[in-house]
């Protein structure tokens, strides 16, 4: 019954928008689920704020700049939110909210800079989804969104935290963080979104209905 109702609602929405999803109008369920994802991601950020310290001490002496490989877990929120909600602004909202949660609980980078980083990273992912007019949600697009979040965040980090770094460090760091963003924030977020959709938990979203039709 609920599945047929969702399909009917989606069909009516498509008719009103000429067959295109209404990417600008957020429903209450969009806001609620995006907020839940953001808060949950913020708690994961908090855990990674501590968990990354061990790998960091191994990678930095090995090759300065290689610590960019550890950035992925801080970048996934916006990509995951965008893939699930499929509305304009979802990536920015979810990534920024996750950063706010991390900042409120506390970390070593300071509240304002943490929120600013989340905003920049979310914007990097958002621009990729915008580039495809919020109509493509494939694995390559997810990987590009993760890479976009990483590139934006990496440049931001170079300006704020690694000012004066040489060309070698800059190149190694940017390449490392982009790879981490594409794989962890992009590909793994796509796999996670597909897994959630397959359970039926996302049937009120285009991402969930698409998965059910595919099955």
β-sheet strand percentage: under 5%
Number of strands: 0
Order of helices and strands: HHHHHHHHH
Distance between the termini: 18 Å
Uncertain segments: 1-19
Task: State the helical fraction.
Answer: over 70%
Could you give a short account of the major beta sheet?
A: none
Number of helices: 9
User: What is the overall pLDDT average?
Assistant: 89
Morphology call: globular
How large, in whole angstroms, is the Cα Rg? 18 Å
- Structural category is mainly alpha
What features would you describe in this structure?
It is a single chain. By secondary structure, this protein is mostly helical. It has 9 helices and no strands. Helix 2 (about 30-50) runs antiparallel to helix 4 and helix 8 packs across helix 9 (about 205-215). The longest helix has about 30 residues, at about 165-200. The chain is globular and about 50 Å long. The two termini are about 20 Å apart. Mean pLDDT is about 90; it is low at about 1-20.
């Amino acid at each position: 019954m609920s599945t047929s109702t969702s399909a009917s609602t989606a069909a009516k929405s498509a008719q009103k928008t000429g067959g295109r999803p209404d990417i600008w109008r957020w429903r209450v369920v969009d806001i609620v689920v995006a907020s839940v994802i953001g808060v949950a991601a913020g708690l994961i950020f908090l855990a990674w704020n501590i968990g990354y310290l061990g790998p960091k001490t191994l990678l930095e002496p090995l090759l300065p700049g290689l610590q960019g490989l550890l950035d992925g877990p801080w970048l996934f929120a916006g990509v995951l939110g965008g893939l699930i909600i499929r509305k304009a602004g979802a990536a920015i909202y979810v990534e920024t909210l996750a950063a706010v949660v991390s900042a409120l609980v506390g970390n070593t980078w300071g509240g304002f800079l943490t929120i600013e980083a989340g905003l920049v990273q979310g914007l990097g992912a958002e621009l990729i989804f915008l580039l495809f007019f919020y109509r493509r949600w494939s694995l390559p697009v997810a990987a590009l969104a993760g890479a976009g979040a990483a590139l934006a965040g990496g440049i931001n980090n170079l300006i704020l935290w690694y000012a004066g770094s040489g060309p070698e460090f800059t190149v190694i760091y940017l390449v490392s963080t982009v790879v981490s963003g594409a794989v962890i924030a992009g590909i793994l977020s796509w796999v996670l979104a597909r897994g959630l959709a397959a359970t039926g938990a996302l049937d009120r979203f285009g991402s969930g209905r698409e998965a059910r039709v595919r099955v």
